[in-house]
Amino acid sequence: MSILKKALVLVLCFSMVLGLAACAPKEEPAPPAEQKTLTGVGEGFGGEIKATVVVEGDKIISVEVVGEKETQGIGTPALEQLPAKIVEANSTEVDVISGATYTSEGIIYAVNNALDPVAYPAPVAEVPEETGDITAAEAYMGFGVSKLGRKGPGKDDQDVQVWSFNQVFTSAIFDGDGKILDLHIDQLEVATPNYDGDGMPHLSGFPGQGGYNYDENHDEKVDSKTPDTEEQFIAEIEGWMTKRERGEGYVMGNGKTWTEQISGFEKTFIGMTVEEVEEWFTKYTSDLNGRPLKDGSDKPEDKAKYDALTADEKAMLADVTSSATMSLNDGHGNIIESIKLAYENRQPLTIEEANGFGFGVVSSPRKGPGKDDQDVQVWSINEVFVTALFDADGKIADIHIDQLEIATPNYDGDGMPHFSGYPGQGGYNYDENHDEKVDGKTADTEENFFAEIEGWKTKRERGEAYVMGNGKTWTEQISGFEKVFIGKTVEEVEAWFAKYTSDLNGRPLKDGSDKPEDKAKYDALTADEKAMLADVTSSATMSLKDSHGDIIAAIRAAYENSKDIQLQIGK
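RE: above sequence
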């Protein structure tokens, strides 16, 4: 082929290639992914958490969450911080917020429910069990708390002892014959942080005692020591949760939650007097461990006791142990004693009806007051207990408030319950005769540990000896506040507190304050409001919310924990 022909062929081929390229369809850019707004729900610590999630294709653009019943200052940091972490990671595989595990897990589940409702179905709301009408010619409401120390369970892998203290709270309604009309039992168990139980509330002792061995991942091996700091002390106490509050995460050996177990016992005891409850416990539980008897025990004592029962009694026990198998009186707490104390502390109800029955406890730490004469810090722990009845509109029909304040023994207040820390931590400075001078150290022994806890008395139990600055006892003061709160909703109680107490110390406002803020707030009130406050402060002048405890938060907790009842009195 000539050179000219070859050139023509090459030109024709090149032209064809160019033509094909020109005719080839052009690739269009992919359309932008459509933005979608998805919603989901999860179960937090206080109740339902709602999530609104905006996605663009596979990318999470924004997350907004609402959890109205999450605890202020504990659960709320998770509500504020976790959505941004999920957006940043473009995933729900993020770390939970420290101290707000339940709220964090609820947020994560709510977002997952929004993204994939098939794999993460919406939680089914628990339908409250019908309690039926409760009627009585006369009725009484009582609250009791039993307290005890525990050695164990066992030691950690470094041969350091585990210790705990346990409090059982019972709120009860009795009729005129002493029979239990309704019952609400809860418990707070606090252990050294070398205890390997997941979700267990911890206390490492007081700052300055060196911290305590810590099993962080619950594998029965010590990972470190807790920080010996004020921040750690505060965080531990603010994170305490009762066994009911620990919720679905606290499952017992039989697969039932603690709440399911205690609810089974409550049903058993309703209709009994305290004496009958004690007799039931004596006859139908093991003398070895306080658990309900069951068929097939390998303990000769339990087998003989069970075999002596009638067929009907065995059938009753089988019904009880289908849900409730835990002990009613052992190192974890004395439930029977707390029921008895609730009866002994009962007060007559003057109302005609109630539609809600609730209990709340709020625990708070305190640094102080001050230091002793050896410059050693005083520390204390405060727990506020509220039992309340509510009407159909959520107004307080009746209320009972009590408090437990526990201080290091260098506090010079006469009658103050003490805690020196755990055996092995060296005891604590002790002002024995309350003259503001340290006399020595408390004994660093197991015996002192048990004696201190068993001697804890609530402020009502301290009685006539516990006189406040205005000459009134603590019981007289809190009774004055209770009268103010009856007939109000929780929101109205909170509004009353915000309007009529000092922003500086939570005490009711009074005429003649030398604090400019308090004076301005008081002077802005009407004559009728000032007269009302004068009536209140004739008996009640102490703070409703300060380092001694948050009474307002405990009232809200009682409302949020309340269950439906239909109580009618005198009809």
